[in-house]
Specification:
The protein has 332 residues and is an alpha/beta fold. It has helices at 18-22, 40-48, 60-68, 117-130, 171-176, 190-193, 206-217, 230-235, 240-259, 271-282, 295-307; strands at 4-9, 30-35, 55-59, 74-83, 90-93, 108-111, 138-141, 161-164, 182-184, 199-201, 222-229. It has two domains: 4-83 and 221-325, Periplasmic binding protein-like II (D-Maltodextrin-Binding Protein, domain 2, 3-Layer(aba) Sandwich), CATH 3.40.190; 87-217, Periplasmic binding protein-like II (D-Maltodextrin-Binding Protein, domain 2), CATH 3.40.190. The strands form two sheets. A six-stranded mixed sheet has the order 8-7-6-9-5-10. It is globular.
């Protein structure tokens, strides 16, 4: 019996998806060609514009924006290969006088894509935990490391000061020379990595802040989801569950490798202690897949998207995903 051939565009994760990338795990009835793009930005722009990938990793925030606009070219699966706490990715110019999140009110803050999921979460933190709503900040968009940034899709957010920076400069350059007071990033500025004294994190004790946030909310913020092209999904609706099950199986195999203490699977000296904390804090799985187990967080995210003007109405989380995948649990 012939197997359906699908191209998958996604990031190479050493634990969660490695078994899919190597072919050790394969979705039932599917030959999955795992393609790693040159960059996340390239992948997301391609997917938003109708991609050659039948299945792909994609920004969950951008998916919510598309569904909120009535653009249903993509169908989500409750597979969330990327999550990250984002308190650590707010960087300030130390000469700006910013000492507390509330000091960001009225300031110039850069972000490469206003709609990106990392920025959605940062704005939610600032609004709900520190009383700084998005309209109190003067936002600037553009390339973070290189000029001439191309946004993944047009965006108009009523009531928000949102302006593009000049094409010849970058957000990190403007942060360093003081033209920006702060930036929201997915990667640290190169100057911060190099120890430049002009840039610092907004939250110096960031691990404590992020741990307290998780303990208070239960949210390890979702960044990306897996999506299918609707034309492919409608022609082969059976593919939703084999894909979901295969991603889950690949993740569990990766966790087994990490948990093996005889020889560490990655180069972290205290890996055994980290995996112990994974069990105590996250119940053994910091990246749960499935709709029901993530519903509270998805409800919060769709609420944030509406509050921040990314969607005109609050999107029902069920409208983001294939109906076949809205199950209570998936095989372990």
């Amino acid at each position: 019996m012939s197997r359906l051939k699908l191209n998958y565009g996604g990031i190479s994760y050493l634990d969660r998806t490695r078994a899919l990338e190597t072919g050790e795990v394969s979705p039932a009835g599917i030959d999955l060609n795992y393609v790693v793009p040159a960059s996340v930005g390239d992948l997301f722009r391609a997917v938003a514009a109708r991609t050659e990938y039948e299945v792909a990793e994609f920004s969950l925030s951008t998916l919510m924006v598309m569904i909120g606009r009535g653009d249903n070219r993509l169908v989500g699966l409750p597979i969330f290969p990327s999550r990250a706490f984002r308190h650590k990715q707010i960087y300030i110019n130390v000469n700006s006088g910013i000492k507390h999140p509330s000091d960001l009110a009225g300031r110039l803050v850069g972000v490469s894509d206003y709609q990106m999921t990392a920025a959605l979460w940062v704005r939610a933190h600032l609004q709900h935990d520190y009383g700084v709503s998005p309209d109190k900040i003067r936002w600037r968009t553009g390339g973070f490391f290189i000029p001439l940034h191309v946004p993944r899709m047009p965006l108009d957010v009523p009531g928000i000061e949102l302006e593009k920076i000049p094409d010849h400069t970058t957000l990190q350059e403007m942060l360093l020379d003081g033209r920006l007071d702060a930036v929201v990033a997915t990667e640290p500025p190169t100057a911060f990595v190099a120890g430049d004294p002009r840039v610092a994190r907004l939250f110096p004790d960031v691990r404590r802040v992020e741990r307290e946030y998780f303990q208070r909310t239960g949210f390890f913020p979702i960044m990306h989801a897996v999506v299918m092209r609707r034309d492919v999904y409608e022609a082969h609706r059976w593919i939703a569950m084999p894909l979901l099950n295969a991603f889950n199986e690949a993740k569990h195999r990766g966790y087994e490798r990490l948990a093996y203490q005889g020889a560490y699977g990655i180069g972290l000296p205290w890996l055994s202690l980290e995996t112990e904390e994974l069990k105590s804090l996250f119940g053994g799985d910091a990246f749960p897949y499935g709709f029901r187990s993530n519903l509270a967080q998805l409800e919060a995210m769709t609420t944030y998207a509406h509050e921040q003007g990314l969607t005109k109405h609050k999107v029902d989380p069920r409208d983001l995903f294939a109906p076949e995948a809205l199950v209570d649990s998936i095989p372990g």
